[in-house]
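Quick one, C-alpha cells below:
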C-alpha cells in the first residue's frame, strides 16, 4: 500500500541519516569524555568540590548521549536476518522468564498458546527483541500494574477482510495489555520512527518502527487493536511454514534494501 511504501522509504532515509550522524556524533562524544577525564585528573583533589560536581554532570550527560547514539547505530544497521525454522509455541514459551525479570512485579504475565505446533522461519534474536519491545511498551502503558497476555494462534485471513493484512493463513503472536490504550491519532503514527508520546529520556520512538521493519523483512505483518482506557493488542502475523507437509511452500523473506 502507499502508506507502507512511505513508511519503508522513510525508514530507509532515516536509517542512512541516523547512521551517518550517530557515527560522527559518537566520535565527538569520545573526545568530550576523554577531555573531561583529563580536566578531572588535573583538578587538585578536594580543592574544587563544586567544579568536580559540574564535571560529573557533564560526564553523565555525555554518557547518556553516547548510549543513545549506540542505540541509533544499532537501529540504522538493521542487520540482515538470520532466519531459521522455529516452532512458535516453543519460542514464545521460552521468553516468559526474560519477560518476567524485565517487567517486574506489577505486571502479571499470562501465556495462551495454540494447541497445534506453529512452524515458521524467523530470526529468533530479532524476534526476541521485538517481543521485548512490545512488552516494555505494554508495561509503560500500565503504570499501576496490569495484565500482559502473550498468545499464539493460527489465523485465517479472508480476501478483503483487512486493509493491511493480505489473505492467507498465519501464525499470529499477540501481545495484549490492559493499559491506557492509544487514541486513533497515536495508532496512526505509532510505527513512525521517532514518534513517541513519552517524556524526553524515556522514549526514543524507535521500538514500534523496529518491530514493523522486522515484520516486513520477515514477510509478515503487524496490526494494532487499541481501545483507549481498556488496553492494546499488538498482533504479529507471521507466514506459516509447514516443513513436513509442504516443503516447497516455504516463502523466503523479502530483503529490505538499505541502499548503498
Ligand atoms: P517509545 O516506546 O520509545 O515511545 P515506540 O515506537 O515503541 O516508542 O512507541 C511509540 C508510541 O506508541 C509510544 O510512545 C506510545 O504512545 C504508543 N504505544 C506503543 N505501544 C503502546 C501500548 N502497548 N499501549 C499504549 N501506547 C502504546
Amino acid at each position: 500500500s502507499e502508506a507502507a511504501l512511505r513508511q519503508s522509504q522513510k525508514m530507509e532515509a532515516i536509517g542512512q541519516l541516523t547512521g551517518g550522524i550517530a557515527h560522527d556524533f559518537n566520535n565527538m562524544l569520545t573526545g568530550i569524555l576523554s577531555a573531561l577525564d583529563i580536566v578531572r585528573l588535573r583538578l587538585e583533589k578536594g580543592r574544587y568540590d563544586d567544579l568536580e560536581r559540574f564535571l560529573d554532570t557533564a560526564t553523565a550527560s555525555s554518557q547518556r548521549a553516547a548510549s543513545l547514539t549506540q542505540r541509533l547505530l544499532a537501529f540504522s544497521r538493521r542487520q540482515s536476518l538470520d532466519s531459521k525454522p522455529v516452532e512458535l509455541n516453543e519460542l514464545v514459551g521460552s521468553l516468559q522468564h526474560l519477560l518476567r525479570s524485565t517487567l517486574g512485579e506489577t505486571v502479571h504475565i499470562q501465556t495462551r498458546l495454540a494447541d497445534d505446533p506453529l512452524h515458521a522461519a524467523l530470526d529468533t534474536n530479532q524476534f526476541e527483541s521485538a517481543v521485548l519491545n512490545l512488552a516494555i511498551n505494554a508495561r509503560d502503558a500500565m503504570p499501576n500494574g496490569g495484565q500482559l497476555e502473550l498468545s499464539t494462534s493460527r489465523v485465517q485471513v479472508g480476501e478483503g477482510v483487512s486493509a493491511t493484512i493480505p489473505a492467507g493463513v498465519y501464525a499470529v503472536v499477540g501481545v495484549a495489555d490492559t493499559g491506557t490504550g492509544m487514541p486513533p491519532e497515536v495508532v496512526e503514527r505509532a510505527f513512525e520512527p521517532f514518534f513517541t508520546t513519552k517524556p524526553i529520556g524515556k522514549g526514543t520512538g524507535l521500538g514500534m518502527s523496529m518491530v514493523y521493519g522486522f515484520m516486513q523483512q520477515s514477510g509478515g505483518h503487524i496490526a494494532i487493536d487499541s481501545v483507549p482506557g481498556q488496553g492494546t493488542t499488538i498482533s504479529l502475523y507471521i507466514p506459516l511454514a509447514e516443513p513436513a507437509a509442504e516443503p516447497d511452500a516455504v516463502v523466503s523473506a523479502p530483503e529490505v534494501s538499505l541502499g548503498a
